Structure formats: C-alpha cells, structure tokens
Amino acid sequence: MAMLKYDDKKLYLHMDDGISKLWIPRYNDNYSREYFPDPQLESVEKLPLHLYFVNEEFCYKDYYRKRECSNVFSIEFVLEGSMLFKQNDVEFRVMPGDIFFIHMNQDVEYMTGPENCCHRLACCIGGNQLMDLLTATHIVGRSVMTPENKERVEAIMRSCITEYRERRENFRLRASVLCYELMLLLGQDIRSSEQPVILRKSIDYMEHHISRKITLKQLAAAVGTSSASLHRLFQAHLKTSPMHYLIDLKMKVAKSLLLNTKYQIQEIANRTGYSSPLYFSSEFTKHVGVSPRNYRKHMLNGR
Q: Containing H/E element for 81?
C-alpha cells in the first residue's frame, strides 16, 4: 500500500499560532470546496457543543496537509476515492464509507490516495462538553472507523452544511444538536464493535426506556441475565455499575433537555424517569453541582 510521502521543500507554513502549525503545498490549487466557517466564533464558543466550520471538499493530486499539535477536532467522512491518513505515526488508507478523526493536540498528515482524488465531508467541532462526549462515545484514541449507517452519517453532515450555508435564525443551536446526534451515532457503532452483546443490549434498553424507572433486577431480566452477572459486566468494561451508568445517562439527557427545549422541570423529570420533580432536582444537583434551574439559567445566559 502506498504510504504518506511528501517533499517538504514543496510546502509552506500556512498557519502558526505558537503551538499548532499547519503546512500545505506551495501551489494551493489541488482542491475545491464549499467551506462554511462560523462568522462569529465568540457566539458558538459558549455552546456546550458547536461547529467551528463544515465543508465538502474535492481533493486531487498533490493535495496534502500536515498539522503539528492539531488545534482542532474534526470528523472527516470519505465519500469517493481514498485518503492516506497518519496520526501519531500510525498510517491508514481511508476508503469510501470510512471516517477518520483528527484529534486535538495530535500530529497528523493526510493526502489523496493512489486514485489521486478524494471527495469528503468534514465537521470541525468544539465546545466545553466535547472531551466528555469523546470519552463517553469511545471516539477518544480512535483514528479511523466504518459507521454502520453511512447514509445517516452523510445526511447529518449535509444538514450541518445546510444550516451553516443558510444561517437562518437559531442555526447554531440546530447545528449543535446535529453534532451531538452525529457523535452519539458514531459512538453507538464503536460500542457495538467493542462490547459484549449483553452489555450492548443493556445500554440500548436504558436509552430506549429512559423515561421509566428501571431497577437492576428489571434490567437484568430484560436482557436475559442475572443482576450479579450484569453488575460484573459493567464493572469490567465500563468501570461503573449499571445503576450509576443509568443515572449518568439520565443526567446527560436532562442537561440536553434543559438547554435545547423549554420544558418545565416537572416535564424533564418525567422524561428522565423521575416521578417527583423534587427528587429529580436533588439528584441533578448531586451529580452536576448546580440545580436544574440554575444550570439552565447559567448555560443559556452564557450564550
């Protein structure tokens, strides 16, 4: 397989902020793209998850990028052709239907494959919840993956492009929700490829019954195992108990509802399986550090 090789004499330093550096070819006519950055970065940086930019790019012979200590996290989805990708000295050939992740603070290189062409979509994502979400979805430490539902991945990324192209009212908020959906979708695929069937079934059951009160005994019965076996499985693979995982999941859903809907606390409590809004508020405060009302007020005022 052809691997990444490029003559450094043909490159120039395109960006240098003192930490991160980006090199590209001197004659920068080897690609065409639709590129949509956010015109007001100070607006998006207050969102828990946001888009810095989205683009659809057609790359040709001599296309090349070299990043030293990357300052971005980006999801790159190859549609046609291929891309040779190198991250932290590990090289990949990324084929149509594959995704490669450019991670922050990593050294990366990428160029067109032997076809001398590559058509791909990219979403560059930031936000104060990004690292938590990368960890929760197991995207951290992963360079390349093949999503199961390629059509859905492409549809979400194209919806992001549409939002940033048209810039209708509240487009940033809708794009933030799309980014969240995209990362959860990819995380689900990663989890499916790594986790035992019983564990995947348990997590799927929790996610699809988030509005119910679920006990460990009920969960174990639903997936066809014992409470003790299920507890050992969660501890071995996720370093937590099934009930702690469920509570964390409820809190993530509650935070999303607080930020992205106008539901009252009672409604959010019901949608996350709490019959009492007071008990829900107590649990939320215990796990998040602030009450649901103060979380909503602080986060929305920060936007």
A: strand 73-81
pTM (predicted TM-score)? 0.66
Helix (H) or strand (E) holding 100: strand 99-102
Which helix (H) or strand (E) segment holds residue 64: the answer is strand 64-68
The region, left, alpha or beta by phi > 0 then psi within -120 to 50, assigned to residue 262 is alpha
> Considering the chain, what percentage of its residues have pLDDT values greater than 70?
97
Q: How many CB atoms lie within 10 A of CB 44?
A: 20
CA 44 – CA 53 distance, rounded (Å): 11
Residue type, 295: Y
CA dist 54 and 37 (Å) reads: 7
For residues 112 and 83, what is the distance between their CA atoms, to the nearest angstrom? 5
Numbers of helices and strands, H then E, in the chain: 11, 12
Q: Model confidence over 247-267: pLDDT tens digits?
A: 999 998 999 899 878 899 999
Task: Give the full edge-to-edge strand order of the sheet including 83-87.
Answer: 11-16, 21-25, 64-68, 108-112, 83-87, 90-94
Q: Is 94 helix (H, G, I), strand (E, B) or coil?
A: strand
* Residue 252 Rama label (left phi>0; alpha psi -120 to 50; beta): alpha
CA–CA dist 296, 15 (Å, integer): 37
CA distances from 288 to 27, 130, 173, 257 (A): 50, 16, 22, 14
